[in-house]
Amino acid sequence: MPDWKPEILRRLAPLKLSPAREAEIAEEIAQHLDDRYQELLATGQSEDAAFRIAIDELNGDDFLARSLRHVERDLYREPIAPGKDSNNFLSGIFQDIRYALRMLRKSPGFTAVAILTLALGIGANTAIFSIVDGVLLQPLEYPKPGQLFAVQLFVPKLARKFPMVPPNPAVYLAWSRQAKSLAGIGVVDEGITLNLTGGGEATLLSADAVTSNLFDVLGVRPQLGRNFLPDADQAGYKHEVILTNGLWRNRFHGDPGIIGHTISLNGSPYTVAGVLSADFQFPQGEQLIPTSGPIPKADLFVPEVFEKWELAVDAGFGLGAIARLKPGVSREQATAELNLILSQRFHSQSFMPHPRTVLMPLRDMIVRNSKRELWVLFAAVLAVLLIICVNMANLVLTQATAREHETAIRSALGASRGRLLRQTLTETLLLGALGGALGLVLAHWALWALLAVAPPGLPRLHNVRLDAVVLGFTLVISVLAGLLAGLLPAWRMAHSNPEDALRSGSARTGDTGKGLLARELLVGAGTALSTTLLVAAGLLIASFAKLENVPKGFAVEHILTVNLQLPAAQYTQGQERSEFWRNVLAATSALPGVESSAVTNWLPLGGEWNDDPVDLPGDTRPIAERPFASYRRVSPEFFKVLGIPLLRGRELTWADAGTPAVVISAATAKSVWPGVNPLGQRFDVDSSSGFPGFRVVGVVGDTRSVSLFKAATPMVYELYGGGLTGSLTLRTRLRATAVAPDLRRAIWKIDPSVAIPPIHSLGQIVSASLAPERFRTLLISLFAVAALLLACMGVYGVVSYSVTRRTHEIGIRVALGARTSDVCRMVFVQGLRPVVLGLVVGIGAALAAGRLIAALLFEVRPYDPLMMATAAGALMAAAALACALPARRAMRVDPMVALRYE
Amino acid sequence: MDSTASQMEWKKGSAELLILSLVEARPRHGYEISKLIEQRSGGTVRFHVASLYPLLYRLERRGWLHGRWVEKSGQRRRRYYRLTRQGRRVLASQLRGWREFVVGINRITEAENA
Fold first, then answer.
1. What's the whole-model pTM score?
2. Which residue of chain B has the CA closest to A53?
3. pLDDT tens digits, residue range A291-303?
């Protein structure tokens, strides 16, 4: 009989079928040809002729392949169980995915828990990353943002008190006129309040005064109208104003005809030059000026016109300066040139000895205070995801052990290690992908919630969104999570010995030493991560609690404040102004429910302001080495309203107006006149300035006036004279809403053109000053709690599984006389062993992480042993709780049942 | 249209029907199916190996046939094809369609020749 197979195989070759399928087809067709050949011989054909006729049935060389191609292209499926290497990579992957889906459907509980925890982890990571990306990583919204730099001064002798000093008008003008390396430099003076009158109720607006070129330096063009003309910041030029889009829409109904019209600010006419676009953003407060306190967002911009006295070399260090470097100029070149210009103006005896220029990329400057906090948050949320991955790896490993038998069969049938590895990874990658998809939905909500509670001082929040970069990040972490969760189980699976698994003949084989070790290592890793997080969260919580309860030195309860601004055009004389304030104080303290009222030019927690030297007669030290104090103006009742105790001497009275009498704080007394009675001592704010000297008449208690973080700043309180701005403070048991109508009426009775902005309680101001700390403490605590729960879940999973597996063994032990307490101890020891290991590693990591968060802590040491012990104790307790349930089960094992079962 | 070409066309449309109806009563192997087609058509319809097996595989792929290797003592193993439940339904509907078609054709041709 002829051998047909070579002929058939030759024709099948172009189809590249799997060897098994090829052999099957060849066998069937060869049989057919055999039958045909026999039949032909029977009809009397010669062997040659019979062969020729039979082979003709194949119809040429390529007909068979052509007819089979469509049928066989995707008919042939590799049998799943053997998991043999497919010769088609893609179809192999699809097959893996189908198989993985089937396996996931088979254990819906595991799948649901895995996808949900992954979704929570990935969702939280996506939300936090989108904030990190929007705030820290995305470039600024201005054209060519890489050329923009914030310009500061560094004064070595002042560095302890002021790490950075904002420039003053004299320095700015020198740079602006001489620097060749800059395409431009502009400055801003923030936190100006303006009374907008006409067209309804007077409104208090917040404004920034900018040099006429600042918007050009930024590369910003108004949406309507034009930028300030170059002369706009020269004295005597007519007043112009540029409105923000928000003010234009809310107050002027988005009227495009507003350009060229005049509005009344502080009683003076200002011409509207332009309206900024809605997406215009400008750094506010300390984002640009390091010594600044919290400042509301500007509603409008006016040109900065320097007064003559401001142009003195030593005056007015408080401007925010933004420079644009010329193309091709490096930061170092520009710094060198600006330094040279500085050195020509300042000598060693000046107020700012030997200042140096610091150019900081504008974006870095704006986000510098949020950088560490956001990265710490990001690290924390990444740690949570890692714990989730570790837990998942453990679950998958458990499953893999249960499936050892199946794996062994597949391996015995010819599945390669690589293929088995890929199969397991496909399962966890699929989980990662599904978790990532659900996580995106969660991230959308989480982000919305985060932005709602984020502290207003967090810069660039408007830039935070789920964009392509964030989606890419989500994709990457989803894949990484899938890989992390799957690598160890996959490796274990691929390296298991099929022979052993098959010989035992049962799917319920005992846990091998290696498998147990792997699982314990995973639990240890999870515990380590959550220990670190718990310690970090504990430190931040302790720090926050200290901050909230730090003695402030002033009362917070029952105090309301409101900022008032007098129209400058009407109140040109000091006499008129002080009359207004005295009338307001008299009227408000007579209001029902108001105990007393006072006014100050700077409320507590308003940031650094008016820090000046205390010059003693005959002090020859350089100015930078003399004591400094914060100078504030207060009305007589101020100390009573704020509950600041009088320690020596007397408080100020209106009779002190025009006299050198001042009250100082205890810190000032201690730093300026140590061991000497300060009462009656004389000093100057600046002996060279020609200001009249002061005489101490009283000493009051210290307060945390600058911020809650700063220990008592030395203070000098002068009598409040006739200022254009002032913060009215009322001591009352009524709520702000109850007082507001009466207050409004009382003030407008004195002058209806004074705007009355919303009234705040001092408690609100204190609370707002802690908003960033509260935000990050809340988030980290949330992550730490999640980490603790996850770590417990990990411990529970392993211990519970182990008890189930060892039921037989426990049964034998009990039968041989082990007491229930022995069994219990065995379960606990096994469960807590990896936890202790994790604790040790975790505390080590927490010590390392302490350096990272030290800067965020207030009066709490990052290496606080008590905190470490508390975190460790909490974790041990939680882990023990997680062991308790399986331990109870183990103690109830009935030896008879357990043995019979086997 | 010459006779070979027309035969090709007929075969294409009816081949599935022929195979399905041949395995309706009992499972048969490929050679048996090809012989039966040849015999019952009096030699007018014949399938080459290269056409028959791809067709069988296609029907199997569609789930109309189910092929299985069967070993009988003293014989080589052979692959037998049997009609699946789905195949049975398809066959019934194809037969119905075929009969209606033939009736229709007859009516037309009879009317013309009458």
1. 0.73
2. B48
3. 777 788 899 999 9
Taking a contact as any Cβ pair under 8 Å apart, which residues of chain B between 92 and 111 contact chain A? none
Of A601, A410, A600, A433, residue with least CA distance to A493? A410
- Please tell me which of A601-615, A632-646, A761-775, A788-802 the model is most confident about, judged by mean pLDDT: A632-646
d(CA A713, CA A701): 11
Compute CA distances B106 → A102, A399, A750, B111, B112, whole Å: 54, 68, 113, 8, 10
* Residue A409 one-letter amino acid: I
**Measured distance CA(A813)–CA(A269) in Å, rounded:** 95
Q: How many CB atoms sit inside 10 A of residue A710's CB?
A: 12
List chain B residues with CB under 8 Å of A38.
none
Give how far A40 is from chain B: nearest CA, Å: 13
Q: What share of chain A is helix, strand, coil (3-state, %, to 5)?
A: 55, 15, 30
CA A540, A541, A544 angle in degrees (round to 5)?
Answer: 85
- B50 and A58 within 8 Å at the Cβ level: the answer is yes
In the beta sheet, which residues pair with residue B69?
B79
Q: In this structure, what token pair is assigned to residue B97?
A: 């369609």
Strands A300-303 and A203-210: parallel
**How many domains does chain B divide into?**
1
Please tell me the predicted confidence (pLDDT) of residue A91.
65
With beta carbons under 8 A apart, name residues in chain B contacting A58. 48-50
Choose among B34, B48, B57: nearest Cβ to A71. Answer: B57
- Is B30 an 8 Å CB contact of chain A? yes
* Lowest mean pLDDT, pick from A376-380, A388-392, A875-879, B99-103: B99-103
Residues of B whose CB is below 8 A from A59? 48-51
| Collapsed DSSP state (helix, strand, coil) of residue A506 | coil
The whole-angstrom separation of Cα A543 and Cα A547 is: 6
Q: List the CATH number of the domain containing B64.
A: 1.10.10.10
Rounded Cα–Cα distance for residues A74 and A18 (Å): 12
CB A507: neighbour CB atoms within 10 A?
Answer: 13
Chain A hits for B79, CB-CB cut-off 8 Å, are 28
**Distance in angstroms (rounded) separating the CA atoms of residues A233 and A226:** 15
What range does the domain containing B53 cover?
3-113
